[in-house]
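Hi team, as promised in this morning's meeting, here are the two structures we talked about. I've kept the exact order from the run log so nobody has to guess. The first one is mostly here for context; it's the second one we should focus on when we meet again. Sequence first, then the predicted structure tokens.
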Amino acid sequence: MSRLPVHFFINPTAGRGRAAKRLKTIREIARSKGVSLDVHESREPGDMEAQVQSVAIRGASVVIVAGGDGSIHEAVNGILRSGTDTPLGVIPTGTGNDFAKAAGVTLDWEAATALLADRLLEASPPRPIDVGVMNGRYFANGAGIGFDAKVTALARQYRWPIGDLVYLFAIFKAFRDPIATPSVRIRAGDYSWDGPLTLASVSNGPWIGGMFHIAPMARNDDGQLELLIAAPVTRRRIVTLLPKLMNGTHVHLPEISHQPATALEIDCESDLLSHLDGEVQAPVSRFEIELRPGALRLA
């Protein structure tokens, strides 16, 4: 039996509201395994991060999050900003669940709950997971600037219960405007890029947007990030690239450049949108990105 309640965090709006509907069942499964959940609900952006940081500082033995990549993003920042090594448990109830897939967590949320409870009761050692940091903010799965950041911002405007398809709708909505190709300077060790691009993606895990296999070579425990750059392309070319982006066969195309990296700097001629784990960041013109190997412990 679990000796103490486990701090459990949920974003009721995750997965277009699916998370809230699953809370009762998650509690019942955990209780049947002997784990009592001390439930904390997130009510606004940043709330979960602050709550997680607080319980981690107070000595939480583990933090469990039921949600999607946005919830995990806040939890990771809360834990790492606490200065502790509090383990994180994940129950995927979001839209894309990219981090869960990268970490080998089953997307069957009921099975994930039961398996996690078993590991806690068996005191299984947490797994070290790499984490990236961009301009002082952590990311668990990936960062991006350019077209994918714009698509992410548009996707967050939809509240339709259509899962990953929301990103496809956002892509076609983005086509209403000309495809921006900002001039960017990137330095990653001996590698450099100077000139226009459609997007630059820095991946810790292989998936973004739930359905796009953006970096099939990425592993979140291998001590490196994967930088992928798409040269300027037309709307028509983006449409023909979509199936390849979904199945991960785009990497060797002439428009795509790939470079493993542990640290990189990106300077832009103007302020650009970016995203971290699907969370849109304020526009800036300089990005400093580096890897923190094994910084997160996954329960």
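And here is the second protein, the one for discussion:
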Amino acid sequence: MGALCLSMAASLAAGCGVKETTEESGATEEVVIPMILTVDSTTGNRNEEKLIEAFNEEYQGIYRVDVEWIVETEEEYRQNLKRRNVTDELPAVITDLSMLPSFYRMMIQDGRIEDISSYIEEDQEWADMIEPVVLEGCSEPSGEVYLAPISTAAFSCSGVFWNQELFERAGIETFPETWEEFWYCCERLENYGVTPLALHTEGTGWAPMLLATAELADSEAGADFMKELYPESYQNENGLRLANTLDRLFDYTTDDALHVDFDVAYTNFFTGNAAMIPNGYWMIDQIPEGWKDKVRFAPFPGNKLISSPETFGWSIVSSYSDEVKEGAVEFLKFRTRMNQAEKEEMFNQNARGLSPAERDYIQAYQGNPQIVPNYQVKWNSILQEEILGEILPELVQGKITAEEFTRKEDESIQKFEEEQ
């Protein structure tokens, strides 16, 4: 998601999508809604392409979402949002704001994004589509909604994808249900010549951090810690436990896991170089042909899923014309409706028509899992964007201790507070 789909100059040249009616023809100009989305670098798939095509077809001649597809990582896209905000070159609809907590707060304070709560309150159809937990996650304490919600949390959960063939090679029939069984599973896989985990350290360390935070939530104190927004310190029992788990995880991964991003971990998993990779429901659509029968899904040990539905909330940039913003509202409502229909279709269809991973995911979601918040919406941006990528490799290489790791995490808190 990254470079601007339309520069401001180009947007103005196109009328910024303003609907204009001429007396001569009585024709109404199609309202163009600029947006940028990413192309998955590993699969070549255009993210959200089905949504864009469906909306443009239904609203042909009235509204059109004009997307520039960018080959960038999610982290690159998020950094570009900040740069384009400074130059006033943001598209009309932006994604991923909740993954940048401090930037999101600044966008609200500066009046850069729209509060759409009144649209939802006045549209009972739209309100009825949204699960209460999703709307709550997208709402401010005082009731404003700057993150347009999807319908359901059903597609926002992360767990572990695992290679059934590699598990069977080691004589393991099912995914481990406890963390003690998980570590035993890693040892057994290694003993049979199978690398257990596909991990990475760049970005926010998405894959290892999913595992480590899920493990931390196995204790009541750890679960409470994961609910804290901007923890005051990591130099405590919870922070040390998290650091030690991260260190231990990298004993079971590939040799190329350091200083690389998730795409390398993805490739290692889907070339059979590793038996497990943590990720969310959305990776089901990224399973290559020939792999669908061997890839399974499981909740994290302890029957845990990591989910923050607000991370799927999209925002409307305030600097656009009323016509464009109204079109963006229609687009976001359409997205909510399409998300609701996808859940109903998937959860109601015959299980024989689903892939093993899809069947597993539905079973996990309906299995009363403990939901652990996503650390990316809880921790300060400096820790995530600057510190983790530096100190995680140092930790797993033995250059710093777990205590030093947590001390460096706390340094990010001080720096973050100074910048606010």
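Starting points for discussion:
The longest helix spans residues 322-348.
The chain is about 45% helix and 10% strand.
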